[in-house]
Amino acid sequence: MKALAERSRVNHFYDVLSVPRRLNMPPELFKTCYAERNPSTLYMKGVQFFFTFNLQEEGLAFMKLAADEGYERAVYTYAITSKIFWGDEEYFARFTRESIVRIEKLVRSLKWAWGLSHSDEFLAKRDEFISTIVPSFYSCQCVPVMERDWALWYIENSKGDKMCNRCFRIKELGLFFREFEPMSVIMDTREW
């Protein structure tokens, strides 16, 4: 098995985020995977650079590299981040509802940050979203509102599945603001 792992380019295809955190992967494996342009490590570096170190240009570039490799978590995070920070919907528009629901569960299930807070800019974008966009979600008449939630706690339960595309995207952005955690404490990816 070790001989197989030492073969060139094998680590390019390994999803390091599929390994439970408690298994404590050796830092050398992350570095080796990154050296082979492994999409999951490019994604990790991009998220950490963008959301933790506030190196937005570099972070977004790493996320885009991973997204262009087809790494689903990266495609989703890149699409949502581009929409939130710059209003760019190019990647976001590529998703079907079904694929968004599936991928966002993957992204939201990744809890490696242990409650660290987001950057001030992210929190400001979230507050702006809640005060300016969320009201349009509730005022849209596409389907009846079952429950109002101004703080994003239950936004996914506020309307049924038959909501319009605009409301669906607002809901997805709300879920991202509520659930996304930057991978801050796994390790410092600047050392790769």
UniProtKB/TrEMBL annotation:
Tell me the ranges covered by the At2g35280-like TPR domain, including all copies: 29-83
- Spell out where the chain crosses the membrane: none
Q: Which organism is it from?
A: Brassica cretica (Mustard)
Which protein, by its recorded name, is this? At2g35280-like TPR domain-containing protein
- Spell out the InterPro entries in the cross-references: At1g67623-like (IPR040338), At2g35280_TPR_dom (IPR057136)
